[in-house]
Specification:
Layout: E1 3-7, E2 10-12, E3 18-25, E4 34-39, E5 46-51, E6 57-59, E7 67-72, E8 77-82, E9 91-97, E10 113-117
Parallel strand pairs: 2-10
Antiparallel strand pairs: 1-3, 3-8, 4-5, 4-9, 5-6, 7-8, 9-10
Length: about 120
């Protein structure tokens, strides 16, 4: 069964940093492109960052230069280092495997991890 477990969120002041983690199971992680997504209540989930199986990365324009996605295939884990956080980064963050267009592959999302940026 495919499962994603996100962690690392919290409350941080503007300009602060957080590192999110997502442990994946039930997929061949080393062969999978992975992505981070976020959702604000009342809005559609949006793609934040992606990393393919050979470590090529891409980012939404809103987070370029501030967020860094990485992966550890030995731990089946994908990370999102978030620096210079802004209030508009406040959202629930999720991970999923993704296709070449950045669309999530699986319907069974994890519980997500809440990130709140506020003074």
């Amino acid at each position: 069964q495919v499962q994603f477990v996100e962690s690392g969120g919290g409350l941080v002041q503007p300009g602060g940093s957080l590192r999110l983690s997502c442990a994946a199971s039930g997929i061949i992680f080393s062969n999978s492109a992975m992505g981070w997504y976020r959702q604000v209540p009342g809005k559609q989930r949006e793609s934040v960052a992606g990393i393919n199986y050979y470590d090529s990365t891409n980012y939404a324009d809103s987070v370029k230069g501030r967020f860094t996605i990485s992966r550890d295939n030995a731990k089946n884990t994908v990370y999102l280092q978030m620096n210079s956080l802004k209030p508009e980064d406040t959202a629930v963050y999720y991970c999923n495997a993704r296709d070449w267009r950045g669309r999530p592959l699986y319907d069974n999302w994890g519980q997500g991890t809440q990130v709140t940026v506020s003074s």
